[in-house]
Amino acid sequence: MGAEPVNFDVGVKIVPNECLDAVAGEAVRRGCAVYVVPRAEGVGRHEFFRAVDRVIRLVPPIVGGRSWDAFADSLWEGITLLEHERIVIIWPDSSAVGDERDLALAILDDVARAVGDGKRVSVFVSTGNA
């Protein structure tokens, strides 16, 4: 990210792992709420859902990890319940979902763009593992 300003437009942005701290710092300076998805305890969508739920409460909670649609709906609802208007989600370890990474990114992008009520959601995803 270097000297370039951080782009906090709505949606998903792929950034080098070494830039994530700078993104978080700039987000805080701009008054955004920052949510960092912790490293999953394993690989797969269920572990990813659990990791997201640790920082943004999924509403309703997801039982198991079978449905990406249920995850999208629960994440959307969880974000709408947050008190903050400017939200930055940082996902440093996108390898956690294995071969479903592209699907996870598409869902995160869709949810970020669908959230209304004056909220702006930016998602930053690392190009590599944390």
Could you characterize what this model shows?
InterPro entries: Barstar. Residues 47-121 form the Barstar (barnase inhibitor) domain. This is Barstar (Barnase inhibitor). It comes from Allokutzneria albata (Kibdelosporangium albatum). The chain is of the alpha/beta class and 130 residues long. It has one domain: 2-Layer Sandwich (Barnase, Chain D), CATH 3.30.370.10. Helix content is 37%, strand content 17%. It has helices at residues 20-29, 45-55, 68-80, 101-114; strands spanning 11-15, 33-36, 86-91, 120-126. It has a four-stranded parallel sheet, with helices on both faces. Helix 3 (68-80) packs parallel to helix 4. The longest helix is centred in the last third of the chain and has 14 residues, at 101-114. The two termini are 17 Å apart. 31% of the residues are buried.
Summarize the structure.
The protein has helices at 20-29, 45-55, 68-80, 101-114, and strands at residues 11-15, 33-36, 86-91, 120-126.
Q: Strand pairing plus helix content: what structural class?
A: alpha/beta
CATH topology-level fold name: Barnase, Chain D
Number of domains: 1
What is the mean pLDDT?
91
CATH homology superfamily name: Barstar-like
Strand order of the largest sheet: 1-4-3-2
What percentage of amino acids are in beta strands? 15-25%
- Figure out the total of helices: 4
Helicity range: 25-40%
Shape: globular
Alpha carbon gyration radius: 14 Å
| Main sheet record | 4 strands, parallel
User: SSE order, as H and E?
Assistant: EHEHHEHE
In total, the number of strands is: 4
Low-confidence segments, given as residue ranges, are none
Distance between the termini: 17 Å
CATH class: Alpha Beta
Give the name of the CATH architecture: 2-Layer Sandwich
InterPro entries: Barstar
Protein name: Barstar (Barnase inhibitor)
Domain Barstar (barnase inhibitor): 47-121
